[in-house]
Every structure is written in structure tokens, then in C-alpha cells.
Amino acid sequence: MKQKDIERQFLNDLWEDMTGLQFPKPEVPDPEPEERKPTLPEQMITEWDDEFEMLMRNRLIVGSMRYGPMAEQDYAKYDLPKDAQNRIDKYKKTRNLEHLVDAANTIMLAYIHGRRNGEELKPIDDGEHTPIVNNVVFKVKGKEIAELVPAQYDSERVG
Q1: Domain span including residue 59
Q2: Co-location of 57 and 101 in the same domain
Q3: Between helices 80-94 and 98-116, what is the axis angle to 10°?
Q4: Which residue, 76, 99, 111, 133, shows the most beta carbons closer than 10 Å to its own?
């Protein structure tokens, strides 16, 4: 109970004790039920794409058969971020989803190479967020990205 509610109840009780009359209770509408938040198991299903992961793994397995295991590769001889960007650019031109899978694998290899070289994951909040997640409208720098949200969602929420 909030302090304000406690004080109100005290004054109501005092009124009833001193006057013998019951303090009129204001009619308060029932509160709106809170929006149900998805559970962690539900999010584990909805916030990941198993097919995409399977395609990534399949290509990595074929790559290990062709070129050897990842642990034996010297990624320093490649510009992995540039290669990933090239694959994304190819996707933009062709709309072939395979290029996105290859870009994701290349980014993962860059991550592995960075870890091997002592680089660390340092989470930051730079204010830049993926604009649309689960059809929720986000505002980035005050600008609405999309209008895909049912009215019950808070369009001011930022990732």
C-alpha cells in the first residue's frame, strides 16, 4: 500500500470513529488488467529462427570438411568484417538469403578470431537499437520507425 493510501485509510477510520458515520467510498473503476508479458520459454521460441541457425551450421560443417576445423584456421589473413559487408551488399542486389547466412557466419568467425586475440565483449548502450522487434514500434532519436504496433503497445519504448 502506498503512503498516500495509508493516510487516506487512517483519515477514513478516524472519521468513522469520531462521527459514527461511514465515510462515503468513491466509486473507483476496476483497473485495466496488465498486458501479459511473454514468458522466457515463449521468447526462446519467438525470438530466434531455428532454420537460419540450421543453415548457418550446415554451411560451417561443409566448410570444415573443405578447409578443416575452425580451431585450425588463421582468420588473421582475412578481412572478415569487410567480407561480411560484401555478402550483405550481394544480398541487397540479389535478395538471395544465402548471402545473409554467409554474412552471419563470417561475423561469427570474426567474433571467434577476436576472442582468440584477447578481445572482449563490452556491452554498451550507445542509443542505437534495432528499430523493429516483434512488430513493436520503436522511436530512434525521436522518429517513429514503423507503424506495425497494435494500440495497446507503448510506442515510446526503446529496445
Answers
A1: 43-116
A2: yes
A3: 170
A4: 99
pLDDT one-digit tens code per residue, 91-101? 999 999 999 99
Query: What residue spans of the chain are helical by DSSP H?
Result: 3-19, 40-46, 50-67, 80-94, 98-116
pTM: 0.58
- Tell me the pLDDT tens digit for each residue of 103-153: 999 999 999 999 999 999 888 877 776 655 555 444 444 554 444 334 443
Per-residue HEC secondary structure of 103-119 comes to HHHHHHHHHHHHHHCCC
The predicted-structure confidence for 37-71, as pLDDT tens digits, reads as follows 888 888 888 888 999 999 999 999 999 999 999 98
Q: 47 and 92, same structural domain?
A: yes
Q: Which residue has the cell 510506442?
A: 155
